[in-house]
Prior knowledge:
5 helices, 4-stranded antiparallel sheet, alpha+beta, single chain, Alpha-Beta Plaits
Amino acid sequence: MELMLRCAVPDRPGALATLAGAIAEAGGDIQAIDVVESADGMALDDLLVVVEPDALRTLVDHVRAVDDVALVHAGPSRGHPGDAVTRVALGLESLLNGAMTLEHGVGVLVGGLLRASVAALQHVDDAPEEGDRVLVLPFDGQALVVRRDYRFTATERQRATALLRACVEAGRATRAAAPR
């Protein structure tokens, strides 16, 4: 099975290698690593790991046992980190050719990029307050509410805002090109 691990790792030589060794010792095979952010001597890394289902608990235990490493999240993978660029490009193309509505596309694209458990449009008055695990983005008099069970980084918030703007522009281009 493919698993995504988000780990806070000391930003120093050898720390990631130690984590990789623990994953390998538990039977995991690292397929990809995405450095989400690096600040204050720590790196936040997303690791795509392939592991046999019966070794999952052992893998999580091994990761948690690595000194100075924090397992922030473990969950099903949504593909390799580099695949996100392809998914975004295909999603924007779907918006441009009318295969996906703008209202549907913003939730799918932003939610998918951020590995959200929920990405839905709500009336602005009904939207929750933004927090570590809740992102609220203004969208055409509504709010795109994105939730997950671990915190959004500043970089992810910036990416979400930029992607939402790109979706809106794609939607405008589609409407402008539509026959009248």
